[in-house]
């Protein structure tokens, strides 16, 4: 009897790709892991190193190096390839190079017969995800980016330290661009089911005056604080990629803040931006439309306008937004 093989490919075996691979192998998320890089020797080295972990992991994962032509039977392709921002740049400043890389890569992948799910981490992730969707011709539910998943995790970490609770007991999202224009949907942040804003009101003596805008600024900038100190970030996003991949394979129906291509949700179309979504074996089952406050709606519109401006630079000038 044939066994269904869960097969993942990671394109880009730098620090992000290798960290994602390490998390995937250690958690036994897939049966086979394909490592692909323009530097084929790097991909071979990473695959060899990872294959030596197997004696210490919960299940066996076959790890090997490969190429685009090997993608035909892959179920999830994780793309991390692309340049990190240089000092003084934002993620958006890397768009030109990233778009060119995808333009060369995606047609070769699709020529292999690939018909699975793309999971994008390459920055600027929202626009690159949209670009991959256009290049691939796949349904929008099967092209997703990591979006504000890591930012939302960072937000929970900050709040957990402030309130001395487990971050996994905090629920809430940052939304919009994975970048400087993102915002926190404070009206939907809860701690153990209790609205965070209510907790602030009830504990003014203990917590003092909490600057919500400053918390969001800290969440936005912490990636660059890490970059300044160690060169780039990779553990957080690597584990996020592993978690999303596991959610796909397990058909978990988890709700995660991801880069999703919108088609009417939140009154937007022809746009990819960070929103909470239900993730299943087929990718995005549903975009979760939160009832945002008026201020949050304005911030979301502003963030989406920033994304559209940069989308124009790679030829998506005809794409327009829908209004309700």
UniProtKB/TrEMBL annotation:
Its main location: cytoplasm. PROSITE patterns: L_LDH (PS00064). The active site is at 178 (proton acceptor). CDD domains: HicDH_like. Residues 148-312 form the Lactate/malate dehydrogenase C-terminal domain. Substrate binds at residues 91, 123-126, 151-154, 233. It comes from the Bacteria. SUPFAM superfamilies: LDH C-terminal domain-like, NAD(P)-binding Rossmann-fold domains. GO terms for molecular function: L-lactate dehydrogenase (NAD+) activity. Keywords: Allosteric enzyme, Cytoplasm, NAD, Oxidoreductase. NAD(+) binds at residues 12-17, 37, 42, 68, 121-123, 146. Residues 7-145 form the Lactate/malate dehydrogenase N-terminal domain. PANTHER family: L-2-HYDROXYCARBOXYLATE DEHYDROGENASE (NAD(P)(+)), L-LACTATE DEHYDROGENASE. This is L-lactate dehydrogenase. The lineage of its organism: Bacteria, Bacillati, Bacillota, Bacilli, Bacillales. The gene is ldh.
């Amino acid at each position: 009897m044939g066994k269904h093989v869960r097969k993942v490919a990671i394109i880009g075996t730098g620090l992000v790709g290798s960290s994602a691979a390490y998390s995937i192998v250690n958690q036994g998320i897939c049966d086979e892991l394909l490592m692909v890089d323009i530097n084929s020797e790097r991909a071979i080295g990473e695959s060899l190193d990872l294959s030596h972990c197997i004696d210490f992991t919960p299940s066996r994962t076959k790890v090997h190096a490969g190429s685009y032509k090997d993608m035909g039977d892959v179920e999830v392709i994780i793309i991390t390839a692309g340049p990190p921002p240089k000092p003084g740049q934002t993620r958006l400043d890397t768009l030109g190079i990233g778009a060119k890389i995808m333009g060369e890569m995606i047609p070769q992948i699709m020529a292999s017969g690939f018909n699975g799910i793309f999971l994008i981490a390459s920055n600027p992730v929202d626009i690159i995800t949209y670009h991959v969707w256009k290049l691939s011709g796949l349904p929008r539910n099967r092209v997703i980016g990591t979006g504000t998943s890591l930012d939302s995790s960072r937000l929970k970490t900050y709040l957990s330290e402030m309130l001395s609770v487990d971050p996994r007991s905090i629920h809430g999202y940052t939304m919009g661009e994975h970048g400087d224009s993102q915002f926190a949907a404070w009206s939907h942040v809860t701690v153990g089911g209790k609205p965070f804003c209510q907790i602030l009101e009830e504990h003014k003596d203990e917590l003092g005056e909490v600057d919500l805008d400053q918390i969001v600024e800290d969440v936005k900038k912490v990636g660059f604080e890490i970059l300044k100190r160690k060169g780039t970030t990779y553990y957080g996003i690597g584990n996020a990629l592993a978690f999303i991949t596991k959610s796909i394979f397990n058909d978990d129906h988890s709700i995660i803040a991801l880069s999703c291509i919108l088609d009417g949700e939140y009154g937007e179309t022809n746009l990819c931006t960070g929103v909470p979504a239900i993730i299943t074996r087929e990718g995005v089952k549903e975009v979760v439309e939160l009832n945002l406050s008026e201020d949050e709606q304005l911030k979301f519109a502003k963030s989406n306008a920033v994304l559209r401006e940069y989308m124009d630079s790679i030829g998506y000038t005809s794409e327009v937004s829908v209004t309700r």
